[in-house]
Design brief:
Structural class: mainly alpha
Helix content: over 70%
Number of strands: 0
Order of helices and strands: HHHH
Radius of gyration: 21 Å
Largest sheet: none
Shape: globular
Strand content: under 5%
Number of helices: 4
Distance between the termini: 52 Å
Amino acid sequence: MVGSVLRIAAAALALTGLLAVGQLQAQEAAFKQMKLTEAQIENYLKAQGELNKQFEKIEQAGEQPDKTLVQGLEAIAKKYGFSSYDELDAIMSNISFVL
């Protein structure tokens, strides 16, 4: 009886460990550290004011923001020299990682 309980407890701990490892691997896959150029950092800083205003509008719109609000992020990214909002988002993630 005690042996069964210990085996169940050991299996639960092993499963918890596997889940934690899986979560870490998923986070690493989602975040890719990259070397930032001075221009990328400067352009990100220039875009900050407009980005913050757009993020605020999106947040105020609730769970279903208008597509034009989300498309505004793409326009801001391109205005400041990024190929897309995805590129800008990756740069923001790397800056946040360093800070």
